[in-house]
Amino acid sequence: MTDDFYKILGVAKTASTAEIKKAYLQLARENHPDRFKEPAEREEAGQRFQQFTEAFNQLRDEKSRQEYDRSLSKETKTPEEEARLYFTNGELREQSQEYDYALKLYYEAMRLQPNNVDYVLAAGRLMGKDKAKQRQAAELFNQAMQKDPTSPEPHLELGALYSRTGMLVRAKRVYEQALKQLPNHPELKRRFAQVKDK
Predict the structure, then answer these.
(1) pTM for this model (two decimals)
(2) Which residues of the chain fall short of a pLDDT of 70?
(3) Of 16, 147, 157, 178, which alpha carbon lies 20 to 30 A from 172's?
(4) Does any domain span residue 42?
(5) Domain of residue 194, CATH code
(6) What is the C-alpha to C-alpha distance for residues 98 and 174, in angstroms, rounded to an integer?
(7) Is residue 82 part of a domain?
(8) Are 49 and 96 in contact (CB under 8 A)?
(9) Domain range holding 140?
(10) What is the pLDDT of residue 31?
(11) For every residue of 142-172, which 3-state class applies, written as one string?
(12) 71 exposure class (CB count in 10 Å sphere: 0-12, 13-18, 19+)
């Protein structure tokens, strides 16, 4: 079985039938082909709509859900594989602008693989788009720095977040710290030069 219907609907395996129905109705509403004018977008939405409907039809009935759960338990995946699936599905949801669902999936990936910096950065980038969640985004970028101090990405992301929100002194400090570890990194040098004199 290639698709995990729970992941498609963005619900936990322990979700109640009511939760599954609620998730499906929201996804079906957001992705109904009639909402899109462009033929390519409409076709893509139609495919997603079909996926959600197939998943819902399998999980809404107790008997078919039990059969499906049994088939899932036969396919044991490593935490790495599970996390990668959540992450990939999160990226797809983010591309479809289903940000809340994408964030849930990124957090599932982080739960399974807490030391994978890519998952932490993806969640941070997504949170950074929402003004109300920018502080949480900064915390995630700081976590990513601690997990992999030699990676420039968390510094670049945090510096960019601070620059966007007008906290240029903080951005400057982030780039300065990063350049102590990576003095020849071209993008860090460029970003530092941008904020240095402001």
Answers:
(1) 0.61
(2) 1-3, 73-76, 198
(3) 147
(4) yes
(5) 1.25.40.10
(6) 30
(7) no
(8) no
(9) 132-198
(10) 86
(11) HHHHHHCCCCCHHHHHHHHHHHHCCCHHHHH
(12) exposed
